[in-house]
Amino acid sequence: MAANSRQEKIPWVSTHHTTALAGSLVILATAGGKRYLIALRPGQTFHTNLGHFRHDDLIGLPLGTTVYSQLGHPVLLMEPSLSDLINRIKRNTQIIYPKDAAYLVHRMSLRNGDQVIEAGTGSGGLTIALAWAVAPAGRVYTYEVRADNYQVAHANLERVGLLDNVSMYQQSVEEGFRQQGADAVFLDVREPGQYLPQVRAALRPGGFFAALIPTVNQVIDLLTALEASSFADIAVEELLLRQYKVVPERLRPDDSMVGHTGFLVSARPVIDATDPGRWLSEERKRFKTRKAFEAIVEAEEEKRRAEQGDEAVRRRMPLP
């Protein structure tokens, strides 16, 4: 029998909890679409407009169980998703949408054990996604200037149980980063192009860079700075998320959708002592070649007009 004709069946061991444990976060989801994120604490009670739920009645139940308030209203007891954690934190600033956060994790190729730097912690929404991706062996180093944002993000990370995987600094990006050899650096600051020297100093060779930018003008400024700083594999993207009404008999899109929330710019630092520009996209190279050719043509036209002007002046001059 061929060696690969029989494969050993290895049982999958999930790292997720199957029951609601004391101290863990759970979601209480109503039939109407509301979702409540709570931390289960023995002896406490969670109050809603549907009635209250005693934590002691929830602790120990299998996740996925239907539970009832003292008024008899049912809710579904579930494990929170990453989207639940991001959407239901305390907000001191606009948070990054889960659709963008998930794609940034993909774009920066984050995995367990990676070291990632974030500048512009805000309320900690993306910090949660980054720490979720690199845990348990990895670490996020996040920088925030404002003291109020720092405190809110600290409390949010502590609440969702990811603070142990995050080092927080109340410090400006202008001062540079304390880490070197990071696997990825993400910037959520007003003018990210100004801080590319700090990014290159902190990234490992071949590391990943990404930024979230709200306006076209800021994207143009960053692209110009990336080209001047020897970055390649540059991409500009936006994500549009449209949900559908979950009715099998008449499946159709929701009446509203999560449209443009920002431009995602990603790039990789390169080392090319001869010509870093060789790694720009073919579209960018063609554009630069065309502009250079147009400049040559314009210079020739200007020279020709000048020569024709000189000839006309000479013809008008009286003979000696």
Q: How would you describe the overall organization of this protein?
A:
By secondary structure, this protein is an alpha/beta fold. The chain folds into two domains: 25-80, Vcp-like ATPase, Chain A, domain 2 (Roll); 84-270, Vaccinia Virus protein VP39 (Rossmann fold), CATH 3.40.50.150. Helices cover 31% and strands 23% of the residues. A seven-stranded mixed sheet has the order 9-8-7-10-11-15-12, with helices on both faces. Strands 2-1-6-5 form a four-stranded antiparallel sheet, with no helix packed on it. Strand 5 (66-68) and strand 6 form a beta hairpin. It starts with 24 loop residues before the first strand and ends with a helix.
Name a few traits of the molecule:
elongated, four-stranded antiparallel beta sheet, seven-stranded mixed beta sheet, alpha/beta, Rossmann fold, Vcp-like ATPase, Chain A, domain 2, 8 helices
Spatial order of strands in the largest sheet: 9-8-7-10-11-15-12
> Secondary-structure element order, as H and E?
EEEEHEEHHEHEHEEHEHEEEEH
Q: CATH-wise, what's the superfamily of the largest domain? A: Vaccinia Virus protein VP39
**Count of discrete alpha- or pi-helical segments spanning 4 or more residues:** 8
Architecture per CATH nomenclature, i.e. the level-2 architecture of the largest domain: 3-Layer(aba) Sandwich
How much of the polypeptide forms β-strand, as a percent range? 15-25%
Structural class: alpha/beta
In total, the number of strands is 15
In brief, what are we looking at here?
With 320 residues, this protein is an alpha/beta fold. The protein has helices at 55-58, 82-87, 98-107, 125-134, 147-159, 196-202, 216-228, 282-316; strands spanning 25-29, 35-39, 45-48, 51-54, 66-68, 74-78, 115-119, 139-143, 166-169, 182-187, 203-213, 231-237, 244-245, 252-253, 263-269. The chain folds into 2 domains: 25-80, Roll (Vcp-like ATPase, Chain A, domain 2); 84-270, Vaccinia Virus protein VP39 (Rossmann fold).
